[in-house]
Amino acid sequence: MTPERDSLYRQALNEALDAGEAVLEAGGTAVDAVLAVVVYMEDSPLFNAGRGAGFTAEGRNELDAAIMRGDDLAAGSVTGLTRIKNPILAAHAVMTASEHVFLSGPGADAFAESQGLDTVGPAYFFTPERWEALEKARRKEAGTSSLPGLDADTKYGTVGAVALDRAGHLAAATSTGGMTLKRWNRIGDAPVIGAGTYADNRACAVSCTGHGEYFIRYAVAHDLAARVRHGRASLRAAADSLIMGELLRAGGLGGLIALDTAGQMAMPFITPGMYRGYARPGTREVAIYGDE
Ligand code: ASP
Hints:
By secondary structure, the chain is of the alpha+beta class. The protein has one domain: Glutamine Phosphoribosylpyrophosphate, subunit 1, domain 1 (4-Layer Sandwich). The chain is built from 9 helices and 11 strands. It has helices spanning 3-25, 30-43, 87-97, 105-114, 128-141, 152-155, 212-217, 220-230, 235-250; strands at residues 63-69, 75-81, 102-104, 159-164, 170-176, 197-199, 205-210, 254-259, 265-266, 273-280, 283-289. The strands form 3 sheets. It has a 5-stranded mixed sheet with strand order 3-2-1-5-4. A 4-stranded antiparallel sheet has the order 6-7-8-9. Strands 10-11 form a two-stranded antiparallel ribbon. Helix 1 (3-25) runs antiparallel to helix 2 (30-43), helix 2 runs antiparallel to helix 3 and helix 8 (220-230) packs antiparallel against helix 9. The radius of gyration is 18 Å and the shape is globular. 50% of the residues are buried. The protein binds aspartic acid. Residues 48, 156-158, 176, 178-179, 188-190, 196, 209-210, 212 line the site of aspartic acid.
């Protein structure tokens, strides 16, 4: 990564934190805070969500998102959106304006549109970096590339946020274009409640990124919440043992961000880096690599 891109990412992370912090400082809810952060990152071309989403094998964008509220376990998810500018707002609309939890494909697009959300054409989501990632993945698949191993940067980049508000409520939100080169309307973990996204005031709020198939099979977000709720492990210890123990042994790469009602945080990952940050009154940090 060039120094220029490094500082672009750090600036974007800080601006995303600004958006969430402004909501919480004004006495807003955790749900509104995670929405503000994720909308900011969906609008940024730097991340694999909204504008800047990764491409399917056919060169399209199919967007997934989920949101969950920790006080009453309300949740909303969407998968396979193709024309809603901010998928996380669609997930929020499912949570607040429908009697459902999970909508998919053209129906999910239509529902979001009926709720007055902004629509865009396919060109809106395009960025040269993600297209290049698709071409690289295609070459690799065709066996003509000499590029070594798993390229975490081209595969991941999902965005997520967790927040705790003044009333003591948690919320989690996740949004993604999914894995580059995905086919057959493949659905990752991000919109699957309990896999990539979960929030329960009795435990924690969690948002995951990584190789979605593993996160679904290990029900990572819910497993972390269950370990915290029923076990005696701290949030940090439980998150580390899941991501750096169980998942790593299984061969699943990724990471997560988590937060409990005491304000304890965990952000373990086993990729070369994970764009991340936190803000709490008086402190703030953003980081990319493991040794920061
Ligand atoms: N978890 C996402 C998926 O599997 C990918 C990512 O985190 O970027 O779709």
